[in-house]
Design goal:
CATH architecture of chain A: Alpha-Beta Barrel
Order of helices and strands of chain A: EEEHEHHEEHEHEHEHHEHEH
Oligomer: homodimer
CATH topology of chain A: TIM Barrel
Distance between the termini of chain A: 11 Å
Number of strands of chain A: 11
Structural class of chain A: alpha/beta
Shape of chain A: globular
Largest interface: A-B, 31 and 31 residues
Strand order of the largest sheet of chain A: 5-4-1-11-10-9-8-7-6
Helix content of chain A: 40-55%
CATH class of chain A: Alpha Beta
Chain lengths: 300, 300
């Protein structure tokens, strides 16, 4: 396992972690500067932040800092109420793939979606198998385009508590079953045979509880492990979406899981993604980023 | 599939559903009377409620009403900080088994526990594999006694969002793996070969999201399906423990899951278990029970 204690060269910051600072939204350009000032070599930004900052301006700023993207957040949300909605989702995913390519991201992360309308509290249907079928169809269609462009797609299995409204792919095993079905040869989107065209983004927050985690990480292998996200599970967890903990402040066995991931061949960034409306989003970005660096060295 | 639309003979009420009425704790004897008044033939009470009411008095009241127990809540919470704690948990589970027998319960439901101390926010350790190992050892020891007494034990897989503090068995597949390991012949605790000594309590709230649910229900079969619990998954879910919905008020495909369970041979009660601090526990018991009956007929 790589030694993280001496530096933070393998630390990436998902910009959601510091998108709010002292309770206020912060522009992406400022976040990039804050990361660059600390020698952070990679980020993973969100589409709405990039849109607000300008795609080309963001690409230029990243190049100027020599900064990489460990991923781009996010494509997905495939299920829809009707055929027009399904088409619109595919179009939106093509745009996300193009943006990810412009920013030279390692992968486009897919939060696949679930029951359409559920996020607004009014699901158009409750047939979970239908949502899953629409997800598979949507990934298949997007994958075709992603292969042409050369942008790997990373399915992020989300915690089962988000199965109704955000993602109906909720275990690594299920995500890998879909990868094997749609990309059986795992031969690469970029001509790079070490990386499959379709793989997974493994966020410890979503999968730490899974009794089959170690087994399925080994199954995934380096070809399918396209991204690795860390944070922690707080006790108590006060909200189903925005109460993630800083690494070390919860119960997730971070080193153990990283060991499994690296034993499978993963050698990329350890990306910190913390949604924390009640805690970290209330602090300064400087404090949050400095703590990420410290914890990356001490507990990841 | 059985027709529930004409009557509620297969409705059971988990007494947690009405343990608070208009915000105040209600004695078990009153809950039993309220259920009996409505022709409800079965309940599943909690140990603390039974202790407060008196075990023998409760047994007498149940007999007087001809009321059955679809289950008894609960044994489990096996992992502990030290050897003394592990022994104390086993002793407590023996008492729970005895109580369940006195009350002639269909099974003792096991909420198996997880990281010891986590419920209080201070886990003694975070080694999830250790907790799972202690759970398996605890079930094995309890099973030996339960076989002597003739009381089936039902492992209840809990939702993964409760993996840290309440139960580290979080999928039906994992629960059945443990059943097969500890009770490979499934030959029965009561001399009744139709019911295994060790099986599962399947609560739709905990398992509805699982992509392997149908497959694993079929695997369980009637021998392992010892209890079936219903409620619903609200949008949004505002609390990880106490924001369950009334059947029909959420997104769980209740009829579909009951169809799978009955196809596997389950022919017992459909037990309503709703923890709802924000909604149903604020209403009268009469309104909650009448609604349970109505929804049992219309959406379960």
């Amino acid at each position: 396992m790589r030694d993280f204690t001496q530096d933070h060269r393998w630390l990436s910051i998902n910009t959601a972690t510091v998108r709010k600072q002292q309770g206020a939204e912060v522009p992406l350009a400022r976040i990039i500067d804050q990361c660059a000032e600390r020698g952070i070599r990679a980020i993973s930004p969100w589409r709405d932040q990039v849109a607000a900052a300008g795609l080309d301006a963001t690409a230029r700023q990243l190049r100027a800092h020599g900064m990489e993207l460990s991923g781009y957040c996010r494509g997905g949300f495939f299920p829809a109420a009707d055929a027009a909605g399904l088409r619109a989702a595919l179009d939106d995913n093509r745009r996300a793939i193009d943006e990810a390519k412009t920013l030279n991201a390692a992968c486009l992360v897919l939060v696949v979606g679930a029951l359409p309308g559920a996020l607004d509290g009014t699901p158009h249907y409750t047939d979970l198998a239908r949502a899953r079928s629409e997800v598979v169809d949507g990934i298949a269609a997007s994958l075709e385009y992603a292969r042409q462009v050369g942008m790997p797609l990373a399915i992020e299995p989300l915690h089962p508590m988000q199965a109704a409204d955000r993602a109906c792919i909720n275990t690594l095993e299920h995500a890998l079953d879909i990868c094997d079905a749609l990309d059986p040869l795992a031969t690469g989107a970029t001509g790079d045979a070490r990386q499959a065209a379709l793989g997974v983004a493994l966020d410890v927050y979503h999968v730490w509880w899974d009794p089959k985690l170690q087994q399925q990480i080994a199954r995934a292998g380096k070809e399918r492990l396209l991204a690795f996200h860390v944070c922690d599970w707080r006790l108590p967890t006060r909200d189903l979406l925005s109460d993630r903990g800083m690494m070390g402040d919860g119960v997730i066995e971070l080193k153990k899981i990283r060991q499994w991931v690296e034993a499978a061949g993963f050698a990329g960034y350890s990306e910190v993604e913390i949604f924390s409306a009640l805690d970290w989003w209330q602090r300064t970005g400087e404090e949050t980023l400095d703590t990420c660096i410290e914890r990356h060295r001490s507990v990841v």
